[in-house]
Amino acid sequence: MSRLFASVRARATLAATLVVAVALVAAGTAVLLSLRSNLLGEAGTQAERSARDVATALAVGTRYTELNLDDDDRPVQVVDEEGTLVAASEDLERITGTGVDAVTPRPSASPRDDGDDDDDSGEALEAGEIGEPATVGDGTATIDGDTEDYRFVTVPVETRRGDQLTVYAGAPLSAEHGAVNTALTVMLIGFPLLLAVVAWVTWLVTRRALRPVEGIRREMAAITASEDLARRVPVPGTHDEVARFASTTNETLAALESSVERQRRFVADASHELRSPIASLRTQLEVAAAHPELLDLDGAVEDTVRLQRLAADLLLLARLDAGERPADARVDLAALAREAAEGRTGVSVRGDAAVHVAGSRGQLGRVLANLLDNAQRHARSAVEVSVRRDGEAAVVAVADDGEGVPAADRERIFERFVRLDAARSRDDGGAGLGLAIARDVAVRHGGTLTVHDAPAGGALFELRLPGA
Predict the structure, then answer these.
(1) Is residue 39 classed as helix, strand or coil in its secondary structure?
(2) What CATH class is the domain 241-321?
(3) Is the dihedral of CA 409, 411, 412, 416 positive or negative?
(4) Parallel, antiparallel, or unpaired for β 129-130 and 134-143?
(5) H or E stretch at 432
(6) What is the pLDDT of the chain when averaged over all its residues?
(7) Domain limits of the chain?
(8) In angstroms, rounded to a whole number, what is the distance separating the alpha carbons of residues 24 and 191?
(9) Which of 75, 123, 131, 72 is nearest to 103 (CA)?
C-alpha cells in the first residue's frame, strides 16, 4: 500500500511538472516570438528612417557623391531605374538580400547628375517625390570586414530632375539576435530550475495530503487483522475530501458492525428457536422407537409443521437480507385480502372492488397472512380488514378488538424474535418473525407498515404501498 501511495505521489508530481512544463514552453515560445517580432519591427523602423533620410536628400537635388553614407552599421544602396548602383555606403564590401549585389557605385550611369540646381532658363526646380517604403526582407552585409545580419527596407524616390531611383537601407539585427539569445539562455537555465522546484513542492504537498490516507490505511489493516469492527479510523480535522472519506469509512464500519451484530443475534435466535421443535420431535421419535404404542402422532406432525414454517420464515428473511428484488407483477390487494381471510373465523373484509399494486403476489400474501395471524392471536372476538385507495397509495388496515400495543413497544414488535407476552407459550405465540417479515416485505415494495390504536380499542396495523 505504501508503494501505491508513493506511486500516487509520483504520478501527481509528474503530472504537475508536465503541466507546468507545457505552460512554460508555451509562454516562453510566445515571449520569444513577441520579442523577436518587436525587435524586427524596430530594426525595420530604423532601416526605413535611414532610407528616408537618403531619399529626402536625393529628392531635394543632392548629388550622389555628396550623399552622407558613412554610417558604419547601416548599409545603403542607391539604384537607378536601370538597376545600376549609383551610390553605396563607404567600406561596403558585400551585400545580400536587396536584390542588388553590386557594392561599387557607377555615378557615370546617371548623366543628368550634373549638380545644377536650375534649369537652362534659370528657374528653380521643384523638389522630387518620395514613394512609400516597403520591407525587402533580411540579408547580410560586410562592412569594413565585419559581416552581420540586416533587415532591409526600400524607398522609391523621384529626383527634382525626374530620375527614378530606389534607395535600399539596412538596420543591424545584432540587437534582436542578442536579446533573443539572452532570453533563450535564461529560459533554458531557469525553466529546469523552476520545474525542479515545482516537482519538489508538489511531492511535499502530495505527501502531506496523503498522510491522513496512510493513517486510515494502517487502521483499516489493523481492523482487518484484529476483526474488531468496533474500532474506527482517524478523522483529520481538515474538513476536506480526505476527512469526508474517513467519516464515510467510519459510517461503513458502523453499518458493518451493526449488520454483523444483527447476523450473530439472528443466528443465535434462530438456533434457539430451532432447538425446541427439533428436541421435541426427537423425543417423540425416541419414545416411539422404544414404545410404539405411546407415539403422539399429532404432536409429531405439529412439531414438524412448526419446524417447516420456521425454516420457511428463516429462508425468506435470508432472501430479503440478500437484497432479493420483488417481482413486478400487478396484484389486486382487495382480492388478496379476501383470499387471506377465507376460512378464518371472526375475520371480515371490506373495501374497494379492486386496488392494484406492483410487486410479488406471494410475498404480499405472506404479509396479509402474518398480519391476520397476529390479529387473531390477540383479538377477543373480531378482526376487520379494510382495503382502500389514499391518493396514489394503496392502504390495507388490519384491526382487532384486543388489548392493543403499548406506544413504547410499537417499533420493537417489528424486530426479529420479539414477543411482548413473555408468559405466552411458543406454540401459541410463534417465533416472533411474522411482523418482522411483514415490515421487511413492505419496505422492499417501497411501502411502510405501522401500528396504531384501533377504533375498537385494539391494534390497527396499516400497510401502505405505492399504487400500480
Answers:
(1) helix
(2) mainly alpha
(3) positive
(4) unpaired
(5) none
(6) 83
(7) 2-179, 241-321, 329-466
(8) 7
(9) 75
Q: CA 168, CA 78: separation in Å to the nearest integer?
A: 6
Per-residue pLDDT averaged across 28-41, rounded? 90
Question: Going by DSSP bridges, is the β-strand pair 393-400/383-390 parallel, antiparallel, or unpaired?
Answer: antiparallel
Rounded CA gap, 41 and 51, in Å?
15
Cell reading at 259: 449488520
Q: How far is CA 101 from the centre of its chain?
A: 65
- Listed in sequence order, the residues at least 6 apart from 443 whose beta carbon sits closer than 8 Å to its beta carbon are 449
CB 24 within 8 A of CB 225: no
Cell numbers 489493523 correspond to 222
For residues 174, 175, 177, 179, the Cα torsion angle rounded to the nearest 10 degrees is 160
pLDDT single digits (tens) 133-183? 887 788 999 988 888 999 999 999 988 888 889 999 999 998 888 888 999
| Same fold: 241-321 with 329-466 | no
Task: Compute the distance between CA of residue 419 and CA of residue 374 in angstroms, rounded to an integer.
Answer: 11
**Measuring CA to CA, how many Å separate 163 from each of 104, 254, 301?**
20, 101, 136
Q: What is the pLDDT of residues 212-264, one digit of tens each?
A: 888 888 888 888 888 888 888 888 887 888 888 888 989 988 888 887 887 78
CATH of domain 329-466: 3.30.565.10
Burial of 111 (0-12, 13-18, 19+ CB in 10 A): exposed
The string over 164-177, giving b where at least 16 C-beta atoms fall within 10 Å of a residue's C-beta and e elsewhere, is ebbbbbbbbbeebe
Residue 231: φ, ψ to 5°? -75, 155
Among 86, 101, 88, 68, which Cα is nearest to 159's?
Answer: 86
Q: Which residues make beta-bridge pairs with 387?
A: 351, 396
Helix (H) or strand (E) holding 150: strand 146-158
Query: Which residue bears the cell 390504536?
Result: 453
136 burial (CB, 10 Å; 0-12 / 13-18 / 19+) is: buried
Model pLDDT for residues 367-379, shown as the tens digit of each residue: 999 999 888 988 8
**Burial (0-12, 13-18, 19+ Cβ within 10 Å), 84:** middle
CA atoms within 13 A on the CB side of 70: 3
d(CA 393, CA 468): 9
In what helix (H) or strand (E) does residue 174 lie, and over which residues does it extend? helix 174-226
Rounded Cα distance between 87 and 106, Å, is 7
304, 274 contact by CB (below 8 A):
no
CA 427 to chain centre: 59
Do 348 and 384 meet the contact criterion of CB atoms below 8 Å apart? yes
Residues β-bridged to residue 138: 151
pLDDT for position 464:
92
